[in-house]
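To fix ideas, we quote verbatim one protein's residues and fold tokens.
>
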Amino acid sequence: MLRVLIHPASVTGLGALLIAVLMALYPGQALASAARGLSIWWEVLFPALFPFFVLSELLLGFGIVHFFGRILDPLMRPLFRLPGIGGFVVTMGYVSGYPVGARLTAQLWEQKLVNRAEGERLVAFTTTSDPIFLIGAVSVGFFHNVALAPLLAAAHYGGAFLLGLLMRFHDPHAPASEGVRGRLITPPPHADGVSGTGALAGSRRRSRLYEAIKAMHEARLLDGRGLGKLLQDSIQSALRLMMVVGGLVVFFSVVMEMLTRVGFVEGLAEVVRLVFGIFGLPGQLGDAAVFGLFEVTLGARAAGEAGTGLMHQAAIAAWVLSWGGLSVHAQVASLLSRTDLRYKPLLIARLVHAFLAMALVYVLWGWLAP
């Protein structure tokens, strides 16, 4: 009986029943929190993410991703044990923020350009905040200090880079996928009489460029859709994804409000304050950590308003940004649900990234302190 009750499915079901009861007890507060979540989605997330979702679909259809995959292959494999095509995901993930990296990784998996181990490595260190949110919302909006942005960016993205290096040891016995290399034809022969190191290096660069262009051309032919059809499909796919993201944001906004009403959030915050006190951190930051555990925006705002000293506030903000909040975790998990990529490696990676970024704030404070 006890084993049945503590099964994850049973716990989730009981949690959902509890939230439903609380919504019946606090209907006004549930409606107001849902409206706040909808406002965040419509005013912030939709304009920030929708263009990137459409663009990513277009770039895949035109074969641009395959071009960069072949060019970046010599860099990505030795550093991260990933095919070069992962470099495009890294760039787009860092520029556009979560959950774009997970979306692109799922697409690469569906096209058999990455396997499960590589996809899990890729999602682990491309689930990051976007620079606009880090600078505009957190540094300027919550901390009212734009000079804090370089420190937060160095800690957040530097922690992601270190995490990528660590993730190369994830699933060490998994075979490497061919990426786009297995789909290329043989490059053209080089001219006779070419000799010397410089000439050989130039020849190799030309060969790699030719292979990259050929990969892009073959991917475009394989897709086969015209511009109008490709644009229509991209917009429809992006809209479906934005509806999922919006639903999760509204849902977690209601969950946070209901848990706050019954005192769960305050009780958890008190426990975190005690833990922070043991490690010499200001107890007031416990609220920011608890809010950030569920939702990154609420946690970052609470960190900016804590008033416990800028260094500690920046450290907990870096933790929140790198953890991402359970709302982001749910978005990523929903995107990966159609693949065989597992959630557990992502969960561990988010924790490691959070503490790496937090530690980097203290390490870099002497050089980048505002």
Observations:
- Residues 182-196 have pLDDT under 50 and may be disordered.
- The CA atoms of residues 71 and 188 lie 17 Å apart.
